[in-house]
Specification:
Layout (H helix, E strand, L loop, with lengths): L28 H10 L2 H5 L18 H18 L4 H10 L8 H11 L8 H12 L13 H7 L5 H6 L5 H4 L6 H25 L4 H4 L3 H13 L5 H31 L4 H6 L8 H19 L2 H23 L14 H14 L2 H12 L5
Helix pairs in contact: 1-4, 3-4, 3-10, 3-13, 4-7, 4-10, 5-16, 7-10, 10-13, 10-15, 12-13, 16-17, 16-18
This protein binds magnesium ion.
Length: 374
């Protein structure tokens, strides 16, 4: 493998872990982070959490687990091409969605509304809570005790008010600085992954049609090329050939443009990366095309009436559960009960609900509200 670039993150320069540990044998600190994430309970639960489509609607749609694996694949390709740290990119990518509630954004919005007045709910901060606190697997500490670099990368967005409470970890938001290039990659790989798999899942579900997508240049360009090369190709193969070309074009654009940005900024160390503007980004033309694609997805998929019905049900399940536990905390499993006051109780209920998979939340709702169920 090519030597790391001077502005890459190096495990030996890590700001370290909260609880000091012996250096790992035969793997780097960032590989150890990645391994801990893969073995965590929250990671396994991603298999039964969804973003747009609810889990029981079909076995072929993306879940947060397959999404996270796709983000890691895209992220690693970019990191390797730019001679950045693949292991750190992979660790951040695999962990980035650990704090997501069941039912995608509908679930998060509902939980945030329930938590208004108790500090709110934000999935990035929750991902951090999972790796810092909520995983209970190790004898010597709560959480996974990950390196500073992985934790900082997980915190993709944060308000300045929340950042101030996080000390060193929130510093970059207070100072308006950038995170490592590896974190910037994971961030944008997330977007590449979901835009493309939402097109794919949207077509698969029948909520989107090829005809609609012919008006979206980011898709149509590649569809035309595939049709020219393979005039008789239909259905799944045609869609897959088009989507894979889209992903490829995005990665190539990111690599070329980010390389150029890095050269122009003249950064020579990870410290200079932090003080610079965001360097991992699309070219202006590609960025404009991506905005169009996003807008298309918003209007035609995320606001589709069938998705809206699902989202509405999801919001009701989450707020019903929250309300029931708040009204009678005795119904909470013992490890989530607390005597530390109303705010602490609300946070604990949020932790419990955020940790649920889609199907667990549906089942729990039935257990609490269906009279015939015990
Ligand atoms: Mg994501």
């Amino acid at each position: 493998m090519a030597e790391l670039a001077p502005y890459a993150s190096r495990p030996e320069d890590s700001r370290g872990r909260h609880y000091a540990e012996d250096a790992p044998q035969g793997r780097s600190e960032f590989q150890r982070d990645r391994d801990r994430i893969v073995h965590s309970t929250a990671f396994r639960r991603l298999e039964y959490k969804t973003q747009v489509f609810v889990n029981h609607e079909g076995d072929l749609y993306r879940t947060r687990l397959t999404h996270s694996i796709e983000v890691a694949q895209i992220g690693r390709s970019i990191a390797r091409a730019l001679r950045l740290n693949e292991d750190l990119t992979e660790a951040i990518s695999l962990a980035h969605d650990l704090g997501h509630t069941p039912f995608g954004h509908a679930g998060q919005d509902a939980l945030h509304a329930c938590m208004r007045g108790s500090g709110g709910f934000e999935h990035n901060l929750q991902s951090l809570r999972v790796v810092d606190l909520l995983e209970t697997r190790y004898a010597a500490f709560d959480g996974l005790n990950l390196t500073f670099e992985t934790r900082e990368g997980i915190l993709k967005h944060c308000s300045v008010a929340n950042a101030r409470k996080l000390g060193e970890l929130g510093e970059r938001f207070v100072r308006k600085q950038q995170p490592s290039l590896e974190a910037q990659i994971a961030n944008i790989a997330d977007e590449v992954a979901y835009n493309n798999h939402d097109v794919d899942d949207g077509l698969r579900s029948g909520l989107l049609t090829l005809d609609q997508l012919r008006d979206v240049p980011a898709f149509a360009r590649h569809l035309d090329e595939v049709t020219r090369l393979y005039p008789d190709l239909v259905d799944r193969r045609l869609i897959h050939e088009t989507v894979r070309r889209m992903i490829n074009a995005l990665i190539n654009d990111l690599v070329t443009n980010s390389r150029l940005n890095i050269r122009r900024a003249g950064v020579a160390s990870p410290q200079e990366v932090r003080a610079s503007r965001a360097l991992v980004c699309f070219s202006a033309d590609m960025a404009a095309e991506q905005r169009q694609l996003k807008q298309f997805l918003r209007h035609n998929l995320y606001q589709h009436y069938l998705v809206a019905r699902m989202a509405n049900k999801a919001r009701r399940i989450v707020s019903d559960l929250f309300g029931a536990f708040q009204a009678d905390p005795r119904m909470l499993p013992p490890q989530y009960r607390t005597e530390a006051g109303a705010t602490a109780l609300a946070r604990s209920i949020a932790d419990y609900i955020a940790g649920m998979t889609d199907r667990y939340a549906i089942r729990e709702h039935r257990r609490l509200f269906a009279v015939a169920e015990i």
